[in-house]
Amino acid sequence: MCNHSVSALNKVVRGSKRATYEKDTVYQILDDTFMCNIGYVWENNAIVIPTAYGRDKDIIYIHGSLKNRMMRGILETGKVCLSITHLDGLVLARSAFHHSANYRSVNVFGSVREVQDADEKMKALECIMNHMVAGHWESVRKPNKKEFDATLVIAVTIDTASAKIRAEGVIDEKSDMNSDYWAGVVPIKQVAGRPESDEKLAKGIVIPDSVLTYVANNR
């Protein structure tokens, strides 16, 4: 079992019993979604932006406009933190104090570089799209030169990371166990609905298998 080393940067202090540094667990949480939140500083203001990503082994790719201030900001800094959270359930206790949530979360701390090699850049764009919907790159028009040149791609090397997971029921005070208040867990999951084809599609175009597979796997 391969773990990230624990340091002051990635150590989970609050609720440390729910922490894990196993790389496989970190990667699985990353692979179960395609949206992350990135924090950066702009003109002495702290800003957090959601963005799509793709993972290739220990590299996370993100993309944006050449003038995107977040992208430029983290390139200038050279380091970044990405945060990912899955909400899996509401934990409703007998007491207001013990209400909680079941979740899987990851903080990734990485080194940043601009992807300048054309082949890697195109592969990175493919990685981001296929991370969103597996295999969908083959069902779209590829970027033309103008689009390609206007896109900034950044590679984040996962230097270290930590995950925190809560997957359990209600934890109440013993003195509340025989009270008249309801307690339990409300499971939550993200599901895909029926694909809605664009009304301006040319005749004869059918929903790609990549989309149908995604929907089938996320009902």
Give the tags.
219 residues; alpha+beta; Pnp Oxidase, Chain A; nine-stranded antiparallel beta sheet; 5 helices; globular; EC 1.-.-.-; Split_barrel_FMN-bd
The beta-strand count equals 9
The level-1 CATH class: Mainly Beta
Fourth-tier CATH superfamily name: Electron Transport, Fmn-binding Protein, Chain A
One letter per element, helices H and strands E, the order comes to EHEEEEHEEHHEEH
Spatial separation of the terminal alpha carbons: 32 Å
What is the strand content? 35-45%
Mean pLDDT: 96
Helix count, DSSP H or I runs of 4 or more residues: 5
Rounded to the nearest angstrom, the radius of gyration is 21 Å
Low-confidence stretches: none
Q: What CATH architecture would you give?
A: Roll
Question: Into which percent range does the helicity of residues fall?
Answer: 10-25%
Q: What general form does the structure show?
A: globular
CATH domain fold name: Pnp Oxidase, Chain A
Structural commentary:
The protein is an alpha+beta fold. Helix content is 21%, strand content 35%. Strands 1, 2, 3, 4, 5, 6, 7, 8 and 9 form a 9-stranded antiparallel sheet that branches. The two termini are 32 Å apart. The model has no long low-confidence stretch (mean pLDDT 96). Keywords: Oxidoreductase. Its EC number is 1.-.-.-.
Q: Topology, pairings included?
A:
Blueprint: E1 19-20, H1 23-31, E2 35-42, E3 45-52, E4 54-56, E5 59-65, H2 69-77, E6 79-92, E7 100-114, H3 118-132, H4 145-149, E8 151-166, E9 184-187, H5 209-217
Antiparallel strand pairs: 1-8, 2-3, 2-6, 4-5, 5-8, 6-7, 6-9, 7-8
What's the short story on this structure?
The chain is an alpha+beta fold and 219 residues long. The protein has helices at residues 23-31, 69-77, 118-132, 145-149, 209-217, and strands at residues 19-20, 35-42, 45-52, 54-56, 59-65, 79-92, 100-114, 151-166, 184-187. Strands 1, 2, 3, 4, 5, 6, 7, 8 and 9 form a nine-stranded antiparallel sheet that branches.
